[in-house]
Amino acid sequence: MNSKYITLYNKIIEKIEQGSYPPSSKLPSENELMEKYKFSRDTVRKALNMLEHNGYINKVKGKGSFVLDINRHKFPVSGLISFKEMAESMEGESKTLVKNLELTKGDKFLRNKLVLEDDEKLWKVVRVREIGGKKIILDKDHFNSTYIPELTEEICRDSIYDYIEKELGLKIGFAKKEITVRSSSEEDIEHLDLEGYDMIVVVDTMVYLQDGTLFQYTESRHRPDKFKFVDFARRAY
Amino acid sequence: MNSKYITLYNKIIEKIEQGSYPPSSKLPSENELMEKYKFSRDTVRKALNMLEHNGYINKVKGKGSFVLDINRHKFPVSGLISFKEMAESMEGESKTLVKNLELTKGDKFLRNKLVLEDDEKLWKVVRVREIGGKKIILDKDHFNSTYIPELTEEICRDSIYDYIEKELGLKIGFAKKEITVRSSSEEDIEHLDLEGYDMIVVVDTMVYLQDGTLFQYTESRHRPDKFKFVDFARRAY
DNA sequence: AAGTGGTCTAGACCACGCG
DNA sequence: GCGTGGTCTAGACCACTTG
Fold first, then answer.
1. A103 CA to D19 C1', in Å?
2. In a 10 Å sphere around its CB, with 0-12 CB exposed, 13-18 middle and 19+ buried, how is residue A31 labelled?
3. What does pTM read for this prediction?
């Protein structure tokens, strides 16, 4: 189903994770990979460039491509981190509690954020994320209902993203995140096990579909001691 | 000096910022750009792909490339943000105070972080960043002295990066950042105007040269109310 | 000199959106 | 059907590292 270069990209990641290409080791050269897989050089280069931008390898002119070992972050690099992915990398059982689910007009702020027309509504979902018996994340999601006509408590308890991508067939394009720190609100105190912390890490996320339309705005509120964000970046030209 | 596609990339950014290509408008098609600049399609596509990955445009198959307007973040997208760049986007005068500058062996933790050989030393720089008369950031930089033989207080007050790149000719390759939130330390309280805040946002950064060698480890401590991190990410394949 | 990755080209075919 | 971007190919030349 996928293109050749994505197949090769995934194949090399697999080899890196299995240890066939250990950290600091040199990958086969572009010529060797062309030979091995019978791909053109451009196809091989596309795969290697993706690996480089995603922090798996480092390419050095005249020398070769080398496996990086900083990829210990289980998180996708600068990616869209879902609660499920995050829970897997942390200790203890995880659970999602749906506190609120409604189709509403929303207030001015939200309607403005989601760029809604007068006749459009939005889904408002409030969920508490629990890991190891502690309620540590409060997620307030808002979806443009034009793209998501139906939403149930069960879907919200499971994974909204699975539903959106697999059931509805919507394709995520890109996302913009803003991370700030604020004083905890009444709502935070009510829903979370703050254990004395009076500040909260707020991650505002705007998610866009592949055609560039905004369809989700989420405010994710994290207990500060359980928050961690990892970012890998290559130098902009 | 630069390659064709980087020239084109910069030219288009300029047009976007000038307003010649306003938000939501369609860029000339790949064919038109080929025609206009007499470049091959591949060269044009390289420039457009960079624009896409850096959050300037969105490409839609069958339709065209469209200018995004979420580029209001003055920060380079997921880039290496220097204090200078940050200060420019904030209100008030900015100043850098050098609190400490020494060539030292360092402790186990630091030597381990920087992967130092027994005979290598490191530069330790402690600086306080002041914006609008308030001391809000405490930067603790550590450089492998093999790559940076000399460092003066003046350089530290100005921009260490300018010195590293322009004077020494070292080329930055990539960086990994980790953002966490912790209780403020004695050192934070001593150096910063915390105004009652008892927590601090810690940004740990590892900076690597283009050949993959680690040469800098920095712990940057921010007053929580003055901290903001913006991240733009396209969906990983 | 040989091998490596970086840039550039010209051409082909495909999948998608739209009228 | 036409124009759009996405994939793939083959070949050329360059810049850099290493022996």
1. 70
2. exposed
3. 0.90
